[in-house]
Design goal:
Elements: H1 2-11, H2 14-20, H3 29-32, E1 39-42, E2 52-62, E3 70-76, E4 78-83, E5 86-91, E6 100-106, E7 114-124, E8 139-144, H4 148-151, E9 159-162, E10 166-169, E11 186-190, E12 209-210, E13 212-216, E14 230-232, E15 239-243, E16 247-251, E17 256-259, E18 263-268, E19 273-294, E20 299-305, E21 308-309, E22 325-326, E23 330-334, E24 341-343, E25 349-359, E26 365-376, H5 390-405, H6 423-437, H7 441-451, H8 473-489, H9 493-497
Parallel strand pairs: 6-14, 11-23
Antiparallel strand pairs: 1-13, 2-7, 2-9, 3-6, 3-8, 4-5, 4-7, 9-12, 10-11, 15-26, 16-19, 17-18, 18-26, 19-24, 19-25, 19-26, 20-23, 20-25, 21-22
Helix pairs in contact: 2-6, 6-7, 6-8, 7-8
């Protein structure tokens, strides 16, 4: 009991930090009614409801570099936006069809005098999409304040091509040992079919097709049959940083190495089967990125897991790997034999362990580098905890890492299995965000999402966003508690008043 009291008094001063922090309101109805002159566009002939990856390009020429170049962008399901080959943004922030988010971007820092290329990778995970992902059809929308006649989709000369190198790899019950998994499919990528350098200015897109209009863009307040009611993003962009892997836990051959200077690298001889197990030593998430050369005919299977399992399929101590094997969802990458080929999955992967199962054909394979781009909501640890008890400090560190990994564009019950924002979890996560980070924006988003999910009987969905409804009555009371929490910690009566009908 003494230790519990100590922890309580150490935590109390942290509340002063969250109450003093600044925050930004987002109750401007005019922004919600943003006028759209551009159109949602898609591929003219390919299916726009099934799994697919689509590439969009538009070239412009500038006499001078502008001081500001504002653009609005969104897509269904997701997009990565590139300007002159450099990734600028990925999104949109996850929402519902009635509140579909768009990003407002200043592209000026990425532009240059003369010819410029703006490109977007848009993907739809189809029927296999995460339960948290709403969708209408595959579509992309882009609007420019500077050059609307050239850059607005449906008006400007946007071109599109389907990237046939990607195929869906469904996550089977056997992969995840029968557990409840609804976070979306993995990828099988054939490098020989990938149009490398498609986002670069020099790429030849003469055989690409003109886009097809789906629907004119519209925001909330312009409800004339639009399937996407566009509203501005109300949370920050995600934190992204490239991190190295921590260690190679074991390998069947000594083909791979990991050092500070070169990072991860491997040289796999021809006609070889080998396995390499990477241990990050703590759970993390992000976009793994592998650069390979040669290896035509090779197959690289990449399996991701929270833990290793014994012969009874139990995890046990996660630091013990002897006699254990990996089970988890997996991507497959098949190189084309050329140099500097990049493998990156469409969506984030969560892992402590990654196993590379590699089979080469008649040519050797070189892995030039392998790391990952950590991706999460940009919480900062402003609250502090101090104790001479090492185990209490470890509990704090593990707790904060858990809070970081369970926050992306919404709070998540878990980053590996579901990636769903359950209100029972979310109330606790919101309080941690207030106390430790002094950040209320993800909490505000959660309050709004739950309020907008209410059914005629008055109950909120137990989780959201989700296209698979779930009602858990006590979770609606947790939402009421969350509204009260916000009222107590933030002097923001206008924001709270909107929830009174609920």
């Amino acid at each position: 009991m003494k230790h519990l009291i100590l922890a309580f008094f150490l935590i109390v001063p942290v509340s002063a930090i969250c109450q003093e922090s600044s925050y930004t309101r987002n109750i401007d109805w005019n922004r919600e009614r943003h006028a759209w002159s551009s159109f949602w566009v898609t591929h003219p002939t390919e299916s726009n409801v099934d799994y697919g990856v689509f590439l969009f390009r538009n070239e412009i020429e500038l006499d001078e570099i502008p001081a500001e170049f504002i653009a609005y962008v969104s897509a269904d399901n997701r997009y990565h936006l590139f300007v002159n080959g450099e990734e600028v943004s990925f999104g949109p922030a996850r929402g519902s069809l009635q509140y579909w988010r768009y990003e407002t971007l200043d592209l000026a820092p990425y532009l240059k005098k003369g010819r410029n290329i703006i490109a977007a990778e848009v993907f739809n995970l189809g029927p296999l999409r995460p339960v948290a992902q709403f969708s209408n059809v595959t579509a992309f929308i882009f609007q420019s304040e500077a050059l609307p006649d050239q850059l607005n989709t449906g008006i400007g000369k946007w071109k599109v091509k389907k990237n046939h190198s990607y195929n869906a790899r469904a996550v089977t019950s056997n992969m995840v040992l029968g557990k409840y998994y609804v976070a979306g499919p993995c990828d099988s990528i054939v490098a020989a079919q990938y149009p490398y350098a498609w986002e670069q200015l020099e790429y030849d897109d003469r055989e690409w097709e003109a886009t097809k209009i789906v629907q004119k863009g519209s925001g909330r307040g312009y409800m004339h049959g639009s399937p996407w009611m566009l509203v501005p993003r109300n949370i920050p962009m995600m934190e992204q940083k490239v991190l190295a892997f921590s260690s190679i836990a074991r390998q069947t051959h000594d083909f791979a190495s990991l050092d500070e200077e070169r990072g991860f690298s491997a040289n796999i001889p021809s006609n070889t089967k080998t396995s390499i197990l990477i241990d990050q030593q703590a759970l993390t998430m992000g976009f793994p990125e592998m650069n390979v050369s040669m290896g035509i005919g090779a197959k690289i299977k990449v399996t991701y897991s929270e833990a290793l399992f014994d012969n009874e399929r139990k995890k046990g101590n996660r630091n013990e790997i002897e006699g254990k094997e990996i089970h988890g969802y997996s991507d497959i990458f098949m190189p084309d034999g050329n140099s500097d080929r990049l493998f990156r999955p469409l969506w984030i992967r969560t892992f402590r362990f990654i196993q590379l199962d590699i089979e080469t054909a008649n040519k050797p394979l070189v892995i030039n580098g392998y790391n990952f781009k950590f991706t999460a909501y940009p919480f900062e640890e402003k609250g502090m905890f101090s104790s001479d008890r090492e185990d209490l400090q470890q509990i704090w560190d593990v707790g904060w890492r858990t809070a970081r990994l369970c926050a992306l564009e919404t709070y998540m019950d878990c980053p590996y299995w579901e990636q769903l924002q359950y209100l029972g979890d979310t109330r606790i996560q919101s309080l941690i965000s207030l106390y430790v980070a002094g950040d209320d924006q993800l909490m505000r988003n959660a309050l709004l999402t739950a309020d907008r999910s209410r059914i005629p009987e008055g109950l909120t969905s137990a989780r959201g966003p989700t296209f698979v409804p779930q009602i858990t009555p006590p979770f609606s009371l947790y939402w009421v508690d969350m509204v009260h929490d916000y009222f107590m910690y933030r002097d923001d009566p206008d924001f709270v008043k909107q929830f009174l009908p609920g």
